[in-house]
Design a protein that fits this description.
- By secondary structure, the protein is mostly helical.
- It is built from 6 helices and no strands.
- The chain has one domain.
Length: 148
């Protein structure tokens, strides 16, 4: 398989999704922390720790969005399909880790009293589904590029 529309589509999806995550977690970290921390625990001094952690998570997403953007706009930088497969695999792992680490929380029923967050409802459900979809899309493109 020559590098083609599927590769460019997943790069665009990665750029958009990681860009949204950067904006949400780094630029509105209090809002992001409220998603993760129940209302009853937001007066705790640890709430600000979650806010700071959200900014850190946003920074990681900025790095991934930047990489996707650079790959999308500088095709001659890495011209080989196997290089594209490597990048798609790395993006699949990034989305996969976000999905996989939420699976046990979802299976346990999500928010439990003062801990965890609701994975299968509200905004987290959307995040969970998009990360799963982009994990599969990136992995499929990587496999297609490697096996062609």
């Amino acid at each position: 398989m020559q590098t083609s529309l599927p590769y460019f589509a997943v790069l665009a999806g990665n750029l958009i999704w990681f860009g949204i995550a950067f904006r949400y977690f780094s630029l509105t970290p209090h809002t992001a922390a409220k998603l993760l921390v129940p209302r009853s625990a937001r007066e705790s001094p640890l709430f600000e720790t979650v806010v700071a952690s959200a900014r850190f998570l946003g920074g990681m997403n900025l790095a991934l969005a930047t990489l996707a953007g650079l790959l999308l706009t500088n095709l001659s930088l890495f011209p080989e399909p196997r290089q594209h497969a490597l990048f798609a695999a790395v993006f699949a792992i990034a989305h996969g880790s976000q999905f996989a680490f939420n699976v046990p929380i979802a299976l346990a029923g999500g928010r439990q009293g003062e801990s965890l967050w609701p994975v299968l409802s509200g905004p987290m459900r959307y995040i969970f589904a998009i990360d799963f979809t982009l994990m599969i899309a990136n992995a499929a493109v990587a496999v297609a590029l490697i096996t062609s």
